[in-house]
């Protein structure tokens, strides 16, 4: 009897982790880190809900931290199996995990010093750099799109992936297995699936025929995005208006995918003359700089136009006036550069990283424009600003929100409601599990799919819930 259970991104939008059990074998779909306020982050320190040493393998959909961020913990607790993913995901996850370990250590040292004054012992980091290095050897099974791998030789269990159109190398995972009654079943896990029609990554591939079970993300399950063309126009308006006022444009970006997409459009603006070649653009993220290099290494996974450009020794991500600021000293020096200027920095939800320092210096100034181009989870600093807070706390001090705020959700790498419903309709499975969404998104998408597929069973699992496939 095949069983699935949900140990992350169940009833929430972070920490993807889903267990598949069949034929005496145990495979995990993603092992993400919980991100957000402490009430959510604290889940990282709780037991997985299964024994990591009993896992036979891990299928990783893509390299975002909320999908790969607990792999070092898995390995530390006994997981010794293979990790299956695309070649770009392997390289991206390596950078993401190393960066995460460094941030965890820095946060621990800061909290340790601060809490010691109150006689409180700080909680140890979730994992260390050494833990990351130990688990990297397990990324030894790379799989190209449409390549089939027999992941369990003694049972009928095969895995293959198709393009999810979310970020570089992101994959939809198909598991084909033989159930205890002798019937062949096909499960499709979307991972995070893209909206399509993007300049850098390919469109997500349509689902294959004969899907029995669909495990689908629901991030934007209750709403549609502004059109991509309108989003580009809004970005251009935000940038050009602020430049005319000689102000500062702050763009909190996820180092992976969103940064490269925004760089592409800023480069197009400079090329067309909409943005002066002399206006400085600071990419203030060592991680984003390293990941951009991976887009060159794995350009064959990008959209054809980007691939063709890179293979002729050109780059769509570098242009006149771009400054790559890797060191702390270079980051601090940005504050002394007069406007107009544009700063891209992480983290995307403004929960940490260098963007918080820029917000501290500029959020209270009316000449500043904050351009939000990514999803902001409940409880994050970014969500508070987007929801209209007059004042927020940054590094423990109150900061007034006087900047102009642009929320441009058309750049989202997640599919909108209409695309998710169409995807489910095309898959036409017997059963759907909706994951990776906040409560309103999950219920909204469930209602919409139920109208489109009245004969399909739709489940919204909670953490630890188990179901027969």
Task: Please describe what this structure looks like.
The protein has 2 domains: 3-223 and 413-468, Metallo-beta-lactamase, Chain A (4-Layer Sandwich); 228-411, Rossmann fold (3-Layer(aba) Sandwich). The chain is globular and about 70 Å long. A hairpin with a 2-residue loop joins strand 17 and strand 18 (397-400). The strands form 4 sheets. It has a 7-stranded mixed beta sheet. It has a 7-stranded mixed beta sheet with strand order 7-8-9-10-11-20-21, with helices on one face. A 6-stranded parallel beta sheet has the order 14-13-15-12-16-19, with helices on both faces. Helices cover 32% and strands 21% of the residues. With 469 residues, it is an alpha/beta fold.
Kindly summarize this structure in a few lines:
The chain is α/β, with parallel strands linked by helices and 469 residues long. It has helices spanning 38-41, 65-68, 71-76, 87-116, 129-136, 228-244, 258-272, 286-297, 304-311, 328-333, 355-362, 381-386, 417-427, 439-452; strands at 3-6, 18-22, 25-29, 57-59, 82-85, 141-142, 148-152, 157-163, 171-178, 184-189, 213-217, 248-252, 281-284, 322-324, 341-345, 368-372, 391-394, 397-400, 404-407, 431-435, 457-459, 466-468.
